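yo, Glycine zipper 2TM domain-containing protein is done. seq:
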Amino acid sequence: MKKFAILTASLVALAALSACSTSNPDVIKRHDTQSLSQVLDATVLSVRNVTVEGSQSGGGAIAGGVVGGIAGSTVGGRKEGQIAGVLGAVAGAMIGNAIERSGTQEQAVEILLQLRNGERRAVVQAKAADSFKPGDAVILITTGGKTRVTRAPESTAGSSAAP
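structure:
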């Protein structure tokens, strides 16, 4: 029973850790700091809510399979315990995979944009502090192949660029 409690706690910890990954544009990854980024001006054409599918790294299935196998093997005698252990491992793996997938699922927005040169682009990113609506002036910041959308800074009239 003690092993079952330890493995259950491990499964919960794995699910919690896998939920830490995010595509939130307000969170900048450490390796993206001090990198030169490309910045493009754009206008929001439309915004729609989407759900980003959760990950399936296999960690949830493995942890669930171990927990289910151990729990099932404690049922009945030796032969029944072996059969129940295999069935418990399969069921645990399926449940662990489903927990991981739902725990890493993320609510996001798909933003359709019009660049100043007339091109259109779409970016999907996690919901953030900024909410966008059609007509909003935004900038696209691309670093290391990843693009995020944020509000354009307000321009100040009469300011000039430094030489």
